[in-house]
Amino acid sequence: MHGELKEGIKRTVGQIWSFYSGNDELPLYYGRIQKITYTQALEQDPVIKLHVGRLKATRCPKDVIEWVDKQMPVGCGTFYARKVLEIISPSEVSHQIIPRTSMDGTEYTILPKIGEVWVIYRYWSSHTDVEDLEFGLYDMVEILDDALDYKVQLLKYESVHDVDDFELYL
After folding, report:
1. H or E segment at 93?
2. What is the three-state SS of 43-54?
3. pTM for this predicted structure
4. What does the alpha-carbon distance between residue 146 and residue 136 come to, in Å, rounded to a whole number?
5. What is the set of domains in the chain, with CATH numbers?
6. In whole angstroms, what is the distance from residue 29 CA to residue 26 CA?
7. Residue 166: helix, strand or coil by DSSP?
8. How confident is the model at residue 40 (pLDDT cuts 50, 70, 90)?
């Protein structure tokens, strides 16, 4: 089954997409489309809903530092689709992800690829809480080389919130 937006972007069951958290304009989560439903009232445009299994990171290898805050979104690594479905609208998805899929089709590895744009948060540590991202500074980078040592080009230096917004919380 296909879901199509006015922009002509097709969404299909089984695809992996990045979607927004609702807190800012950055996509923070991945999900696998499990089902697409349409409803249409008389003489109204159809309403498309995506039933998405959010991807959850698999256990980290022993040599990888894990987040202390278990709610922290994981940007890259190996994931599996949760069975619990969230229902979202197509406007909540950002872009399609083409992961490397395991042989049995249950795990998805997502790593930065050449030409992609990623956000790298500044001043992060394993003790950073998900709430801290709300006021975090970040760099927007383009991946130039995805070999062992990634090479990136700085595209934009940003703060998630305006300085005026930050001053309200001081």
Report:
1. strand 93-97
2. CCCCEEEEEEEE
3. 0.73
4. 25
5. 1-111 (2.30.30.490), 113-170 (no CATH)
6. 9
7. helix
8. confident
